[in-house]
## 1
Amino acid sequence: VAAEQEVIVRFQLDASGDALGTQVVSSTDNSLEKSVLEAFRASAPFDPPEGPARCLIGHPMRARFANPEL
């Protein structure tokens, strides 16, 4: 994968930390996109949101993954 590529993923967390509705919003590289989705799904379930972060349950969130030039 060439440097300076990125993938943005949209998802929601439920109260138990499961990622729901995971989808790619934008991607500059198909290979990186596939790798990001595999890693994201393999990481779930995430820790359940606690304290003030509980307000994020059920709300759309975005995560940006990039491979910078070294």
Note: The first strand starts at residue 5 and ends at 13.
## 2
Amino acid sequence: SSLNLNSLQRTSQPVYGYLKGPDGHFVVDPEAAPVVKQIFSLCLAGNGPTKIARMLTEQNIPTPGTMEYR
């Protein structure tokens, strides 16, 4: 089946890994991009959310809730 973009829930605030650009569109956050890629790699390697969170904490990578959004 094809993805219907009109049915996706929309948000006014960017999710982790994105920033709002000057034109109001979301753009990739260059600081968060490596972390997002690491999270996907860890997930694909079979790690669950709790283990991934623990690994990121051990690397002193801040969570979105502790980051100051720009």
Note: The first strand starts at residue 18 and ends at 20.
